[in-house]
Amino acid sequence: MQLTSSRLFLRPVDPTDVQRLFAIYGDPDTNMFNPAGPFPDLAFAEEVLTRWLAHWQSFPFGNWAIFLREQPDQVLGFGGLTVREFAGKPVNNLGYRLAEEAWGKGYATEFARTVIAYGFDECQLPVIDAAVRPDHFASQRVLEKAGLRCYDQFHDVPGAPASLLYELRAQTWRDQGTPK
Question: pLDDT averaged over the chain?
Answer without folding.
Answer: 93
